[in-house]
Design a protein that fits this description.
Elements lengths: L6 H12 L2 E2 L9 H11 L17 H13 L3 E5 L2 H16 L3 E3 L5 H5 L3 H6 L2 E3 L10 H6 L6 E5 L12 H13 L3 E6 L6 H4 L3 H5 L4 E5 L10 E5 L1 H13 L8 H13 L4 H22 L5 E3 L7 E6 L3 H15 L1 E2 L5 E4 L2 E7 L9 H23 L42
Parallel strand pairs: 1-11, 3-4, 3-5, 5-6, 6-7
Antiparallel strand pairs: 2-8, 7-8, 9-10, 10-13, 12-13
Helix pairs in contact: 1-14, 4-11, 13-15, 14-15
């Protein structure tokens, strides 16, 4: 359903685009003209525009593949139209080499949540789960998995539980445990680009732990679409054959590839800055929500591992969405975007701190939170049929009691995310 068919969506998009200040700005915050203008402005510095367009993966596509392999320190890389295709091909190739169709993967990882069982339906793979906890598996859990598996797939960071990462020592231990099980290791690195500050390691050092790595060009780099699979040259050569069989050998891909090159030039160097400022914003949000009178809140992780994190509040998503849109319409400030239910009366939103949020100070966050909470209380009063009294009734707040209300409640652990709660598949 497009914006013209959905008046509420059209209203949201208009409010977000019209905001003069945005903490969070999504990819759908722009019109086609906006994206074309930006690409035209930045493309000349990314590639020779007098070169010929690509045909079935040559020219500019080869240049992007060479650049990605160089950035990750791998022998080769192949461009794919989607990450779904890239990872399915990678795991299919590894299964053929190991002779084991089982893939050890977290149940909240992208292929399990968002790809309509593509592993099993199209590639004959099956998945096993080392853990169901809202974090990546530990080395001990990998060692103790009670059935064999040919590949371990790790999503870095694991998005659904809050863009969470293990420590570097934990990651290396998990990889070693998989090797002990004679399994290959594949990294779902859709957001690998922003993991370097957390690990304190370079991209080649991180990629070297795995046998293959997938990266996205639009999640953190602001591209139009597209992904790359990187690894040993023999694997990538085989992946190209399967890419063709899966329908990924597109006639021309230069717009997506050009946007990816622009992202590597402009956004990749800034990601550490985004990660650092996300910590400032997360702290400011926590302090401001604690001072606002909302009955409970959670910033997760409290100190973000990347430039993305979750905010949890004890209100229905429709109430939070309306308060968010009203703030953008009435003050020309976007603080939050969409909210999603994670239980009765409990919702989360994702915050991604990028270039638009870099100039937000703690005072700016506090002012925006105050305006948001004012509208939130108004909308909750309408929803419950009660006059606004500065708080919501305790009967409406999950787990409301003296120990879970107020500022200190932000230490409460969130429940495992509900499948389907997020709406941004890769």
């Amino acid at each position: 359903m497009d914006a013209q068919e959905d008046p509420q969506r059209a209203r949201r998009l208009a409010a977000w685009r019209g905001a003069l200040r945005s903490l969070v700005r999504g990819a759908n915050n722009a019109t086609i003209r906006d994206r074309l203008d930006a690409l035209t402005a930045h493309a000349p510095g990314a590639y020779d525009l007098d070169d010929w367009v690509d045909t079935y993966g040559d020219g500019i596509v080869c240049e992007l593949e060479r650049r990605v392999a160089g950035l990750l320190g791998t022998e080769a890389a192949a461009f794919f139209p989607t990450g779904t295709m890239a990872q399915q091909v990678a795991l299919r190739c590894w299964a053929g080499r190991t002779g084991d169709q089982a893939v050890a993967i977290h149940p909240l990882a992208h292929p399990e949540m968002w790809e309509r069982d593509a592993f099993s339906v199209l590639s004959g793979l099956r998945t096993v789960h080392p853990t169901t906890k809202p974090r990546l598996p530990t080395a001990e859990e990998v060692r103790e998995l009670d059935e064999p598996f040919g590949a371990l797939m790790l999503e870095l960071p694991l998005r659904e539980p809050g863009f969470v990462l293990p420590s570097w020592d934990e990651l290396t231990a998990v990889v070693e445990a998989a090797r002990e099980r004679d399994a290959v290791v594949h990294f779902d690195g859709a957001r690998l680009w922003e993991c370097t500050p957390h690990f304190g390691r370079t991209l080649p050092e991180i990629a070297a732990l795995a046998d293959s790595v997938y990266v996205s060009f639009y999640k953190s780099l602001g591209g139009v679409s597209g992904a790359a699979l990187a690894g040993p040259r023999t694997l990538i050569d085989e992946a190209r054959a399967w890419r063709h069989r899966y329908g990924g050998q597109l006639f021309q891909q230069w717009p997506s590839v050009l946007a990816a090159l622009v992202g590597l030039d402009r956004e990749l160097p800034r990601l550490p800055e985004y990660v650092a400022h996300a910590k400032v914003v997360a702290e400011a949000l926590g302090e401001s929500l604690a001072a606002s009178g909302v009955p409970w809140h959670r910033i997760h992780p409290a100190v973000p591992h990347t430039h993305e994190f979750q905010v949890w509040l004890p209100y229905p998503p429709e109430v939070l969405d309306e308060a968010s849109v009203r703030l953008a319409e009435e003050t020309r400030t976007t603080l939050f975007r969409r909210w999603h239910a994670r239980g009765p009366g409990l919702s989360t939103t994702e915050v991604t701190v990028g270039a638009p949020g870099l100039d937000w100070t703690k005072a700016d966050v506090a002012d925006a939170v105050a305006g948001f909470v004012e509208r939130l209380k108004s909308e909750q009063s309408k929803a419950t049929g009660l006059e606004s009294k500065g708080t919501v009734p305790k009967s409406k707040v999950p787990g409301s009691n003296s120990r879970t209300s107020g500022a200190n409640s932000s230490t409460t652990e969130p429940k495992t995310p509900v499948a389907g709660a997020s709406t941004d598949p890769q």
